[in-house]
Amino acid sequence: MTESLTERTPAPSLDRLVADLVPPPRFARARLDNYVPDPQYPSQAEAKDRIAEFARGIGRGRSTGGLKGLFRKRPTAARGLYLDGGFGVGKTHLLTSLFHVTSGHRVYGTFVEYTNMVGALGFTKAVDLLADASLVCIDEFELDDPGDTLLMTRLIRELSDRGVAIVATSNTLPEALGEGRFAAQDFLREIQSMSERFDVLRIDGEDYRRREAVEEAPALPERTVREHADATPGATLDALPPLLAHLKTVHPSRYGAMLDDVTCAHLTEVATIADHNNGLRFVVLVDRLYDREIPVLASGQEVAGIFTDELLRSGYRKKYYRSLSRLTSLARDGAKILEAA
Questions:
Q1: Does this model's pTM top 0.90?
Q2: Fewest C-beta atoms under 10 Å: which of 80, 199, 319, 327?
Q3: Rounded to 5 degrees, what angle do the CA atoms 85, 90, 95 make?
Q4: pLDDT (tens digit, 9 = 90+) per residue, 183-216?
Q5: pLDDT confidence band for 75 (50 / 70 / 90)
Q6: Domains observed in the chain
Q7: Order of strands across the sheet that contains 296-300
Q8: Cβ-Cβ contacts under 8 Å for 24 (sequence gap 6 or more)
Q9: Are 285 and 255 in contact (CB under 8 A)?
């Protein structure tokens, strides 16, 4: 019988949480050399050059430790980079390229992975762990609630003061983080203090996932989805409503572990998601499916219409549109598997 994701409730160890702080499989081969800027948007080439320049300066001036290090001055606060732009313009490619070209100890994770790690280790221990890195990469930087705002702004200040270079990607400028989601003005000082540590690189462009394939991914017959799941080793099969209910019981930082060894995800009863909590959890699941290059076969409603217009107009709209782009891409990958069978 085909396994369901609802049967999985992973509890990764602290060692696993730390070991997972590396770029995901989709970007394992990402390098500056294979980042191809769109000539219609000069900011992409400019960002590529700036990342290369930034990489050359990482680690300069930091203490090397040992006896000599005792007599060195405390490192000056490090400047970071903040890659801002729409989804699909190559921000994550550039971020992972920087990770790969940087030598020494460096860490990479999504925003939610860092907040979970700090919660698991405690703030002081997490800072001590990350302070040994020459580079900390933060993907999908979004402040969705006041607690995360205070936690991440403090973490960035602490690491920057210790000379750690920090590079983040987001769809929102630092001073606009939290807008439309909570009373961001109440935390304006913390947000501004954090944003002062970054040089902002604005990257313009169109979603690369739609440059060569603009067609959508139509829903498949449920029988087709079920038969393919039953015939595919490592496949999972879930109806969307119980899957959304199950996601409530698993911390979003564990969604990646929930997908261990999954080769293809199959969804039935796909219907419109109207609730923010369900929508945002599903966004994280799609991100982890995309990171791990796991194709999706779905029946029910077309995935392009999975979020209501109200969600798409909300303060989280950029997250939802990114998820639509990624989910449609994964559904097209699933359709190609069927065509090749």
A1: no
A2: 199
A3: 95
A4: 444 434 555 666 677 888 889 988 776 544 445 6
A5: low
A6: 5-9+209-340 (3.30.750), 31-206 (3.40.50.300)
A7: 235-239, 264-270, 296-300
A8: 256, 291, 292
A9: yes
